[in-house]
From TrEMBL:
The keyword Transferase applies. Pfam families: rRNA_methylase. GO terms for molecular function: methyltransferase activity. Coiled coil: none annotated. GO terms for biological process: methylation. This is Methyltransferase domain-containing protein.
């Protein structure tokens, strides 16, 4: 694994967490790379809920899934509505913030309020020991606001409930992506936030 690849690190963490047969979430389906990875990881008895607000992302994801399309629900909705589609438990969830690469409208981006709400809602659905990975891309317009909102939320989570880690390269120029990982330490439906 190359040190600078946050997506590879996110997948490595998921491989250590998700078990065959579990329900998992791709909170930002995009071009379907994580949806396919999660469908393979969860196995024939598992299921992926893949969210995106752009139909072209879901169309791309469906094509990428190919024969594994039956393992995933492709949901044209905001990721913060995850609790409308499952009661849990969820084994793990992956987020890639920003815009749909290569084919998407770059003015359509993930937003601070729905991203924080989605992470919060998934935390409530996670199994004990479940994991959320968030790849943060903050070099585009609005990315800094989303980054700051996510990190502010993460810093308020009670350490008795959730471990939060940040993985990043510190010697890269510009705005290299970084990874924030949330691990649920005990059972709860919604984390209690500090004021």
């Amino acid at each position: 694994m190359q040190l600078g690849r946050v997506l590879a690190q996110a997948r490595k963490l998921m491989e250590q967490t998700v078990r065959p047969g579990e329900t998992v979430v791709d909170a930002t389906a995009g071009n379907g790379h994580d949806t396919l990875f999660l469908a393979e990881l969860a196995g024939p008895g598992g299921h992926v809920l893949a969210f995106d607000i752009q139909q072209e992302a879901l169309d791309s994801t469906r094509i990428r899934l190919g024969a594994l399309a039956g393992r995933a629900d492709l949901i044209l909705d905001s990721h913060d509505r995850v609790a409308d589609y499952t009661e849990g438990p969820v084994g793990g969830a992956m987020f890639n913030l920003g815009f749909l690469p290569n084919v998407g409208d770059r003015s359509v981006i993930t937003q601070p309020d729905t991203t924080v709400s989605a992470v919060h809602n998934v935390l409530g659905l996670l199994k004990k020991g479940g994991l959320i990975t968030v790849c943060v891309y903050d070099g585009h317009e609005g990315g800094d606001r989303e980054r700051d909102a996510l990190l502010a939320y993460a810093s308020r989570l009670p350490e008795a409930d959730v471990d939060v880690a940040r993985y990043e390269l510190v010697n890269q120029k510009g705005h290299p992506p970084f990874l924030v990982a949330f691990e649920k330490k005990k059972e709860f439906k919604e984390p209690i936030l500090l004021d």
